[in-house]
Amino acid sequence: MTNGLQSQFYEFDEFRIDVVKRLLLRDTDETIPLTPKIFDTLLYLVENNGKVIEKDELMSAIWTDTIVEENNLNKNISVLRRVLGEKPGEHRFIVTVPGHGYKFVADVTKEREMSEPSAVVDGSTASQLQISDDELQTENQSQIKNLKSEIIINPKIANQFATDKGQRTKDGKSNRFWFVAVFIGFIISLSLLGFYVWRGNEKSVVAPIKTIAVLPFKSLGAENRNEAFELGMADTLISKLGGEEIIVRPLGSVSRYARLEQNSLTAGRELDVETVLDGTIQTADNRIRISTRLFRVSDGKQLWTGQFDEKFTDIFAVQDSISERVTAALKIRLGGNVKKRYTENVEAYQFYMKGRFHLLKAIKSDTEKSISYFVQAIEADPNYALAYAGLADAYRGQVVGGEMPSAEFMPKARAMANKAIELDETLAEAYANLGHVMFYYDRNWNAAENQYKRALELNPNSVDGLQFYALLLSSAGRHAEALAKIKRARELDPLNLRVNALEGMFLLHAGQTDEAIARLEKTLELDSNFRLANLFVARTYTEKGMFAEAVAATRKARELSAVSTESIAYGAYPLAKSGKVTEARAALDEMLKLSTTRYVPPYNFALVYNALGESEKALDYLEKGFAEKDVRMVFLKVEPKWNNLRREPRFIELMRRMNFE
Length: 661
Description:
The protein has 661 residues and is α+β, with helices and mostly antiparallel strands. Among the domains are: 5-128, Arc Repressor Mutant, subunit A; 135-206; 211-341, TolB, N-terminal domain (Rossmann fold, 3-Layer(aba) Sandwich). The chain contains 28 helices and 14 strands. Strands 9, 10, 11, 12, 13 and 14 form a six-stranded mixed β-sheet that branches. A five-stranded antiparallel β-sheet has the order 4-3-2-1-8, covered by helices on one side. Helix 12 (346-359) packs parallel to helix 14 (385-400), helix 16 (428-441) runs parallel beside helix 18 and helix 24 (566-577) packs antiparallel against helix 25 (581-594). It is elongated. It starts with a strand and ends with a helix.
């Protein structure tokens, strides 16, 4: 007696889907050919008819073990619309839901019926026959063992190999010969298959993954976004996964991939990493659901997926679990921070994430917001070392990027950095922040260098640590060391705009002007709106006598930051050098007027006066910059625009007082 199989059908309009046979039929008799993935796309939509299916969900369901670009899904939808006879603009079956995905809108009925089993191996049967390598090896070993046993213990088979000369015929010899030959061939084939499987597994062991990018997690739905938390999840996991065995792209580089529609595979290729970890977030009341996936960039293959549904107060346990499972999937040892929690206070953590989110924007108004959030994080947890380090960095940013007086913010930065170290002496960021104060404010080169070295001892792959140490080395005239450090930072993080721009400036300071222009123009190819790159390339163009290009670059830099008078000063310099003295003086007058309502760094005035040939006034402002501890004074030794003053006694004395001589 044969057992029947239960068939399943979906019907809509004039179409019918046979789930078991994987067929799409029109009017019950016309078969419409579809590729497997297009059939899977249609089936998933039909099974979830009336429901909005997010693109990520649909792609994960269709390409279960491979990460593909969104364009693959779009093509499948386009083909289905054409097959189903939808005209442009007509949505009888599939509707696009902007910002989300797709919805199957036709009425669908579901049927089941019994049918006799078929001996023909069709598409669906074939798919059921797909087995893993391990299953194949186990099955083959079992079959070989059974076959050997049957030959030994089955009398009928044993008799076929009996050496009875009286019954042996030429045909019998021939049959037995071919049987043995086929059997031996079968054994050899299995051996070869096992060898290649073993070689493949061996390759994955001897070639461990060395680079990973943790992308900002995405909220499911634009209306429920919490960008600070999305970025914060990435920030925490980056810190936990970082170690000597694997290079993790820093937050500054991955933060640009926070758009909801961003394709993770494309991001991985642009970041030049072997693997990518991304995820989605859903929150409801006091619960959070996080879905994560780790995949290989070269072929999109998923290496691990996980889903967590917990109370929001358990977010730290979720982060620990994700980092542990990722390190296990990558076959690397856990980094020193994988189990470390800087706070157990969820409220403090949320304030800290918001502070980091605004600080990364590197805009004066956002830096001010970050200070407020870091303060609230500390109020929620007075022992939160990371929050103190973040506050120290924000105070430094107010001076270096925000053109605020050093005396107002640098002592605060020192106090916060020292407090962070007091709470956690292994916190690399705190030593780097303390180094900034000693470098920019104290002009204590040796002490600052020791702090940067300590930061790099704690985190050798810290891109920030490397670039800030390189800045000190370049400013001190130790150009070979500076270029080596910044090159290493760029190798660790190729798309980091600040690293690329700083390398261009260090090349300028080292007298390699052409190389500086090449590096800075490449940086602008990455992002033409990066202010520092525009500012630095203007300085470099000026040294080459490319005054028009220099002025254009400073104007672009000024458009990108209305706060900065640095762009005004470096724009006035080429104007004066190219004979456009009236325009240069107009820029100087603008700065003088601004100084009546806000702080303008004396160093910037000195630049313009020097370009206009008024050396004594330039030296007056440089001495004022020294007295006010203007952070730009650290460039006095290497900025080529001061070369005409280097033999002046007042300038020589300034160099001595700055601890350069």
